[in-house]
Amino acid sequence: MENIVIIPTYNEIENISDILEAVLKLPTRFDVMIVDDNSPDGTADCVRDMMKKYPDRIHLECRSEKSGLGTAYIHGFKRALELGYHYIYEMDADFSHNPDDLLKLHHACAIEGHDMSIGSRYITGVNVVNWPMGRVLLSYGASKYVSTITGMKIKDPTAGFKCYSRKVLECIDLDAVRFVGYAFQIEMKFLTWKYGFRIKEVPIIFTDRTRGESKMSSGIIKEALFGVVEMTIRSWFKTYQRIQRTTSKLQKDLEEAAEKKAS
Ligand SMILES: Nc1nc2c(ncn2[C@@H]2O[C@H](COP(=O)(O)OP(=O)(O)O[C@H]3O[C@H](CO)[C@@H](O)[C@H](O)[C@@H]3O)[C@@H](O)[C@H]2O)c(=O)[nH]1
């Protein structure tokens, strides 16, 4: 039970069987978990058919309604931890992430010993194919915005192609993760970085989907824009509270020591 790739799906009938085949045929074993939100196009039925062909390699989690990519991943992480997987991956269903790159993410964690690896589009320049210029600017601008506000030295903070070693997901309070869209991707990296885990970015080329539709919305952009500021302030506040607690404990200890000495 080493590797499992979690793929959230909503209306991915045109991609699902091909992406499953592409992952399952890799030279290293990667199992797959699909978290489907009751896609009206029958994505889950297609997964059930594929499960007959690969009975031990595919897991299907069905939720009753479309509830966002972030909560789909949280659902998948909890299930993958229960099942005992050691390396847990995030990947889109639409081939914007090349399944072959899973091997690079695996290498960075399982061989080099990093705790998280990120398939990064912005290590050198911008490695994005077929995105309209507006979307490239939005994504690249978002990366700069996030690193400025949070101080996190990650070149592609909104990336959705990653590997987590299980100890990272065991350490993070998954029930407290609040965001659902791009902000979810930023929040997970921010928490991993804050806990001091070792993170490596590996270069990938992101290719826009050719089949099916993106689920990006203005709500998701707004969530990321304001969410990053809120998340950073919350984290500062927590640090401030921790410092305050430590200082008052230290003061109390000193007072007690002084009293003891005096008596
Ligand atoms: N279960 C579920 N899956 C969803 C939902 N919304 C999207 N998905 C699935 O999540 C994957 C990505 O969705 P897209 O709509 O194609 O995402 P995108 O806008 O191209 O965003 C990608 O790039 C962003 C960075 O530029 C990433 O932040 C994001 O996570 C994703 O990888 C696809 O497999 C899609 O079916 C949802 O509400 N529920």
From TrEMBL:
Source organism: Algivirga pacifica
Signal peptide: none
Positions of the Glycosyltransferase 2-like domain: 5-172
Keywords: Glycosyltransferase, Transferase
Family: Belongs to the glycosyltransferase 2 family.
Pfam families in the record: Glycos_transf_2 (PF00535)
Gene3D superfamilies: Spore Coat Polysaccharide Biosynthesis Protein SpsA, Chain A (3.90.550.10)
Descriptive protein name: Polyprenol monophosphomannose synthase
PANTHER family noted in UniProt: DOLICHOL-PHOSPHATE MANNOSYLTRANSFERASE SUBUNIT 1
